């Protein structure tokens, strides 16, 4: 790596060599995720995107030289690193950071412990919007008055649960592939494994419990994102009590779902599941639904997304304890008053009548 780094200086003008600015060298343009990934024009090289790999490496090295020159050791020799930047976590945050680093000419690696795309692509924005697209169509097809006014006849609107789930999953897979390809095309090394900082500029990565590879970088960006937040007292069994990660898989559509938290994620799930036939009960700790929204938007959402649908709600209550259904016992949700902490009521669902209780927890960073 060190050798590659210093080859670069032969490409530099004296002004570039002395530059300490973070800006990309003049003549290097970054064309994003399009077919032509990057174009490099220097007095020394004119490189098309198709020929990119070899010469582009040299261009990256230019900045490597600059970064390392500003980090000389006491005896004046530059320290050597495998990369200018290592990013831990390849969610949308890490991916954006990787693109930006490459744009600035930095030699970049990204370490991912699970799947590229993180929450947004695999368990968040993308599959939830795919399901919302289905729920929107379902509502249109169920709106017989509107259809009649348009002169359209639909005998019965229906859906295939597995096909809907596959649609969301396939979209996530496609976008995950695009993200990976875009990073490969730009020369970002995508390293697989869980990363752990073992020094200020060193990361170990590999299988959980057995990280066996070490890489170093001048800069390390931590972009490890979020996981579902499950408050104490709540037992998740993945079947009768579960998080948004499970709910997106649409493994079944229950008659009734209790959603804890009426933020935008809870609201999206209420939209999807009510369109597919479920009834929803929101449990909200604060005094109003959607407490984090702009009040005007809350009013509109209440009128359009809550009131006309099979949705009821308990506000000002905390779900203190939730116990999944087991051994013939129903799912139980114990509610307490948020302010006084006094017990309020217990909701129970017996699953012998084909009713299940689901819980969708908002994510928390
Ligand atoms: C249901 C749902 C719907 C959403 N809808 C939207 C929306 O419409 N719009 C919006 O803006 N946001 C939405 N979000 C929020 C959005 O998903 C997150 O804000 C976003 O994913 C955060 O991106 P991130 O890259 O910071 O973290 P993450 O996406 O969580 O990515 C972090 C990555 O780091 C990896 N990682 C963690 N630790 C390590 C380690 N030690 N070593 C290696 N890798 C590691 C993880 O495996 C993961 O891939 C939604 C979230 C959910 C749950």
From TrEMBL:
Protein name, per record: FAD/NAD(P)-binding domain-containing protein
Keywords: Disulfide bond, FAD, Flavoprotein, Oxidoreductase, Redox-active center
PROSITE patterns (UniProt xref): PYRIDINE_REDOX_1
Swiss-Prot/TrEMBL cofactor(s): FAD
Family: Belongs to the class-I pyridine nucleotide-disulfide oxidoreductase family.
InterPro entries tied to this protein: Class-I_Pyr_Nuc-Dis_Oxidored (IPR050151), FAD/NAD-bd_sf (IPR036188), FAD/NAD-binding_dom (IPR023753), Pyr_OxRdtase_I_AS (IPR012999)
GO MF, one example: flavin adenine dinucleotide binding
GO aspect biological process, one term: 2-oxoglutarate metabolic process
Domain spans labelled FAD/NAD(P)-binding: 83-340
GO cellular component terms given for this protein: mitochondrion; oxoglutarate dehydrogenase complex
């Amino acid at each position: 790596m060190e050798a590659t780094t210093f080859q670069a200086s032969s490409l530099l003008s004296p002004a570039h060599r002395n530059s300490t600015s973070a800006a990309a060298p003049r003549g290097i343009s970054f064309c994003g995720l399009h077919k032509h990934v990057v174009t490099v024009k220097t007095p020394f090289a004119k490189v098309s995107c198709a020929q990119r790999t070899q010469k582009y490496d040299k261009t990256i090295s230019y900045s490597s030289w600059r970064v390392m020159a500003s980090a000389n050791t006491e005896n004046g020799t530059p320290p050597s690193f495998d990369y200018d930047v290592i990013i831990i976590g390849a969610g949308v945050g890490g991916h954006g950071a990787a693109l930006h680093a490459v744009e600035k000419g930095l030699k970049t690696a990204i370490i991912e412990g699970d799947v590229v795309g993180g929450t947004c692509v695999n368990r968040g924005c993308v599959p939830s919007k795919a399901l919302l697209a289905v729920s929107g169509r379902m509502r249109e097809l169920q709106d017989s008055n509107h259809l009649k006014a348009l002169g359209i006849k639909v005998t019965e609107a229906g859906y295939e649960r597995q096909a809907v789930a596959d649609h969301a999953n396939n979209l996530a897979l496609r976008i995950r592939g695009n993200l990976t390809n875009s990073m490969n095309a730009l020369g970002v090394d995508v390293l697989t494994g869980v990363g752990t900082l073992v020094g200020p500029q060193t990361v170990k990565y590999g299988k959980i419990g057995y990280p066996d590879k070490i890489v170093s970088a001048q800069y390390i960006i931590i972009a490890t994102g979020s996981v579902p937040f499950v408050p104490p007292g709540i037992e998740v069994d993945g079947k009768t009590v579960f998080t948004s990660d499970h709910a997106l898989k649409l493994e079944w559509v229950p008659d009734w779902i209790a959603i804890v938290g009426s933020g935008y994620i809870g609201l999206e799930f209420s939209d999807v599941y009510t369109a597919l036939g479920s009834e929803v009960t929101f449990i909200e700790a604060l005094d109003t639904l959607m407490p984090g929204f702009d009040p005007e938007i809350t009013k509109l959402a209440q009128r359009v997304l809550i009131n006309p649908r099979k949705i009821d709600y308990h506000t000002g209550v905390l779900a203190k304890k939730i116990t999944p259904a087991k051994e013939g016992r129903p799912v139980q949700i114990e509610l307490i008053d948020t302010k006084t902490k006094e017990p309020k009521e217990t909701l129970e669902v017996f699953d012998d009548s084909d009713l299940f209780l689901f819980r969708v927890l908002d994510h928390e960073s």
